[in-house]
């Protein structure tokens, strides 16, 4: 098994460059916590403190830096994106029955599903309300729409579990909605907040969409080939839960008729499909390889979308993120 | 047992007066459904079609009518308030494990908790995004804040289940947040959309807050004294779930030491406290009576808050709602 890991914040992007601004993000997240009713504060604080990678805030900050300078608005945008992301994680963990995330107990493991449903809702509505601070209806609308996309992507994913008619086109639609939308919103709105024109905003939006999509493909590969001890969350759950991810869709595509029937039966019986089973299928390696190739091609395209930013260390950092993710993807090849 | 029922829409307010506008609300809700991804439409349609009383839209419309005329903006405000309300019901039903609402299966009974968590999220984010149509940051902020209040009220309620230190002051805070906030937002923002000044908006907000609070007290009394066949949902659940409502808080206040110990033990053991048990306690009737009196006093106050609207059939209808709710509350007395 590859020793692939979930990247730490320091590895994924040039942390030193954005450290001061990411600290402002952390400070602002802590301030948001204090904006809740005192009875609710500890729950929100717990969820906010289980340190994530803060990729979405980092994107907002780096785009801001590359587009003329990081402002308080870029920090706020990052906070909003991160709060929406946290809200969806709280609800995802309920849906997946997950007990651990980032090495610590999930909200549902600590306080049960009821409180966690409401906690996610509170984070969600707080984030969307915070977006009104921008005094721009257009920004509020784009933040709201990205949140809608995430929810809708999650619904389609849930609804299509164990559905063997699920196509690759649908897979890309789902991951674009559930993961791409927030990355895209973070990068696109950061450009807008810097006063860039609509064309530039759209290119940066595309950068975020491609990066987010590639990141989700990486995450889906990791679920198959990663090491649980290193990644810090339960792996090999996608197939148990009937989630047909890109490597599995590739596998189904390249498998022989007899193999496909065997795989279909296991999926429909909701039998865990562990590595030994998959390794017995000739094209397993090819299926992961092909998913990695797809993600790498997207990352290459995403770099072109950075053109409107011109040259700067911030723009370089946005390239570097794609290179680093590319490196992680390479490690998923056996 | 009193034959108290959940009021039908026709009973609660002068339906004829608002029929055309409430039909516009229904049409607009159906249009919203079509705004979702086709894969999600049927789920949203199901939740939207299980016809509610549409009290919140009716408030927006009546205030609009009384303040100079109902516009498309009042209809839109009504739709937004109703979508937020529906989102919270979908999540409430998960939390309460409810199988039936308004005589039909709940979303969680039909499709399970996972899909219902996400369905509520999608409705929620759709409603908050729809608020951006007003092109007013202030309105977006107020809609967002009312949604936040609802979520926070629900969290505190969940968190304080089976907590015998829960006070009446806290009860009023919780129901003001979880039920009052949306009523208040509907009435207050309707006044604002009609161009009324801030003072008038605040009075109408107060009207909605008091009406919503009285409505929740009625609902809490109904859970104790209503007839399940007539109300169309599972009753007598509050105590089983450890929800300390106003009649129960009154009961705990007036019970003798021996009775209180007995009640406390049942609550903490999470034993169902059915009517026969409650009837064995001397002050049970007084506890419901007192809750009814509290709600009636609030309704009387709410009528004063209608002063800025002057005289009209719409303003009369807003009074009539409080009278009708008062009548239902009277029926809760044994």
Describe the protein in words.
Two copies of one chain form a homodimer. Chain A has helices at residues 9-12, 15-34, 41-49, 55-66, 72-96, 107-130, 137-159, 168-193, 198-225, 228-231, 246-254, 257-268, 275-279, 284-304, 313-332; strands spanning 100-101, 104-105. In chain A, helix 4 packs antiparallel against helix 5, helix 4 (55-66) crosses helix 8 and helix 8 (168-193) packs across helix 9. Chain A has one domain (9-330): Farnesyl Diphosphate Synthase (Orthogonal Bundle). Helices cover 72% and strands 1% of the residues of chain A. The mean pLDDT of chain A is 88. The first copy, chain A, is globular and about 60 Å long.
Summed up:
Chain A is mostly helical. Chain A has one domain (9-330): Orthogonal Bundle (Farnesyl Diphosphate Synthase), CATH 1.10.600. Chain A has 15 helices and 2 strands.
Number of strands of chain A: 2
Which chains share the greatest interface? A-B, 45 and 45 residues
Query: Can you tell me the CATH class of chain A?
Result: Mainly Alpha
Distance between the termini of chain A: 8 Å
Which sheet architecture does the biggest sheet of chain A show? 2 strands, antiparallel
Please state the oligomeric state of the protein chains shown: homodimer
Pick out the low-confidence regions of chain A.
none
Mean pLDDT of chain A: 88
Task: Assign the CATH architecture of chain A.
Answer: Orthogonal Bundle
What is the H-and-E element order of chain A?
A: HHHHHEEHHHHHHHHHH
Put simply, the count of helices of chain A is 15
State the CATH topology of chain A.
Answer: Farnesyl Diphosphate Synthase
> Can you list the strand order of the major beta sheet of chain A?
1-2
């Amino acid at each position: 098994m590859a020793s692939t890991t979930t990247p730490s914040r320091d590895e994924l992007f040039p942390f030193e460059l954005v450290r001061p601004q990411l600290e402002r993000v952390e400070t602002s997240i802590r301030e948001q916590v204090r904006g809740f009713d005192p009875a609710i504060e500890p729950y929100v604080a717990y969820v906010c403190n289980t340190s994530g990678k803060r990729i979405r805030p980092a994107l907002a900050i780096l785009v801001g830096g590359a587009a003329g300078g990081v402002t308080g608005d870029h920090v706020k945008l990052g906070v909003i994106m991160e709060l929406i992301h946290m809200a969806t994680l709280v609800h995802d963990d309920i849906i997946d029955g997950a007990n651990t995330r980032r090495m610590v107990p999930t909200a549902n493991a600590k306080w049960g599903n009821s409180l966690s449903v409401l906690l996610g809702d509170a984070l969600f509505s707080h984030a969307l309300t915070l977006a009104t601070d921008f005094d721009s209806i257009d920004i509020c609308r784009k933040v709201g729409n990205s949140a809608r996309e995430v929810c809708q992507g999650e619904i389609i994913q849930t609804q299509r579990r164990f559905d063997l008619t699920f196509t690759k086109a649908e897979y890309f639609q789902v991951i674009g909605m559930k993961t791409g939308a927030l990355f895209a919103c973070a990068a696109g709105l950061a450009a807008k907040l810097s006063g860039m024109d609509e064309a530039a905003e759209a290119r940066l939006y595309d950068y975020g969409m491609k990066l987010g999509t590639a990141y989700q493909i990486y995450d889906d590969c990791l679920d198959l080939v990663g090491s649980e001890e290193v990644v810090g969350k339960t792996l090999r759950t996608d197939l148990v839960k009937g989630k047909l991810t890109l490597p599995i869709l590739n596998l189904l595509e390249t498998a022989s008729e007899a193999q496909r029937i065997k795989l279909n039966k296991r999926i429909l019986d909701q039998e865990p499909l562990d590595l030994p089973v998959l390794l017995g299928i000739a094209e397993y390696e090819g299926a992961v390889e092909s998913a990695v190739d797809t993600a790498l091609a997207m990352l290459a395209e995403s770099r072109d979308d950075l053109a409107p930013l011109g040259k700067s260390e911030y723009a370089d950092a946005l390239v570097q993120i794609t290179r680093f993710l590319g490196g992680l993807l390479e490690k998923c090849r056996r």
